[in-house]
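Reminder: ligand-aware prediction takes two inputs, not one.
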Amino acid sequence: MLSVRNWLAPALLAGLGAAPVWLGCAHPICRAMAILALLVLVFWVAWHRSQVHKLRQWFASPDNVLPPPASGQWEEIFSLGYRWRKGEEQQRQQLNEAMSQFREAIDILPDVLLLLDPAGQILWANRACARLLGLRWPTDRGQPLSYLVRNPRFLAFFEAGAPGTIQLPAPALPERTLEGNRYMLPNGHSLMVFRDISRLLQLEQVRRDFVANVSHELRSPLTVVSGFIETLQDTPGCGNDEALGYLQLMAQQTARMQDLVDDLLTLARLEAGAPPQPGEAVCPAGLVEQTLSAMQEQVQSKQLRLSTDLDRALCLQAHSLDITSIVRNLIENAVKYTPAGERIHVVWRRQGEEAVFIVEDTGEGIPPEHLHRLTERFYRVDKGRSRASGGTGLGLSIVKHAAARYDGRLELESAPGRGSRFSVHFPAQRLGQA
Ligand code: ADP
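Here is what comes back for the chain with adenosine-5'-diphosphate:
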């Protein structure tokens, strides 16, 4: 800004001009000098004020970057202002270019991106919102998303206001399925991403159908083969000891294949979707006792110490096949993988609002690096051992899917050398009376 020197010159001039008057000089020349000095001061102040006004107006007009003509020190001030404004303008242009490149990039994305304010109103959307959600952009800017996407499940998810994932039919293309993901931003805004997952679901269905069909097709020939093996084994004088040994091996392998096919079909059934409503009252306590009595021979031969804590009155509203799969697979695993002389404890009881089915053993346990993969199909900690003990590698996967059908969850805890604990938790709304 203006330095003190610029103010001093006219002030001194005015002071000197008016000095004779202050000193008592009443001569007309003294008076004329004083008046002249005052006029110079007034003119000087008025000129500077007009320059400041010009500067203000120039800054206030965004389109006019070039500075107005000026002289003296004001020329220097305007040229400084010009350099600053040019820099600002360049930065603005660069920002605009970056923004439009960013917009173009996300506009060609096949996924829908929506930025929502804390009230759920659309602040911003990309072009795919028209194709998949049927939104009109930018007409729908500022509209609450819940007014535009009216699917009841989506509305419940949206009103919950929490991050998460939901599947829904595409409002603008009902034959397509969308997966919506909500991400919360620190300022209370949220980002919604909708992805067309129809192709993924279709491939998943093809895989499921393929496995189910192959398993189904294998079932009949396997039944025929195992039937003939049994007949041959029972036929007196059919071959020597060696031939009988081969038949025994064939019978074992056929039974293994039948187990595998049965497990694959069970998984296919569980994956096919929700069970038909309303189900029946299934009491796991009875299923545990049946399973344990069917496995009595193995339990005794390994001298396993069994204990139970079963609430007989506690039942589930479910389908018996599903709960049998859970009970049988977990108990069979405990018996298979627990060394002789160790303990197995089976529990079915209430735990708070929930009900929980627990199978605990003091066996060799599972190293922690395997725990998160145990429910994958065909995942085994020790392949050779699992096969030798007749495992198909599908047991825990079946348990997980069967539990999920009733909004239940499978939890695993295990420590090498100390044993394992598998628990299936069922929510209160699935509990029923015997
Ligand atoms: P499998 O038919 O091989 O038993 P599962 O899916 O039932 O297949 O189990 C997967 C793997 O988890 C098993 O191969 C075994 O290594 C491990 N496992 C399951 N239950 C137990 C248990 N109670 N103790 C130790 N390991 C277990």
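The chain has 14 helices and 13 strands. The radius of gyration is 42 Å. We will return to this case in the review session.
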